[in-house]
Amino acid sequence: MEEAVRDTLMKNIAGEIILSENPGEVMRKWRELFGATQLEVAELLKISPSVISDYEGGRRRSPGAGFIRKFVEALLEIDERKGSQVVKQFSSLIRIPSGAILGIREFSTPITVLKLSEAVQGEVVVGQEFLGRRVLGYTVIESLKAILTMSGADFLQVFGSTTERALIFVKTRTGRSPMVAVRVHPLKPAAVVLHGVTHLDFLAKELAIREKIPLIISRARSEEQLLKSLAEL
Question: Which domains occur in the chain, in start order?
Answer without folding.
Answer: 2-92 (1.10.260.40), 97-231 (3.40.1390.20)
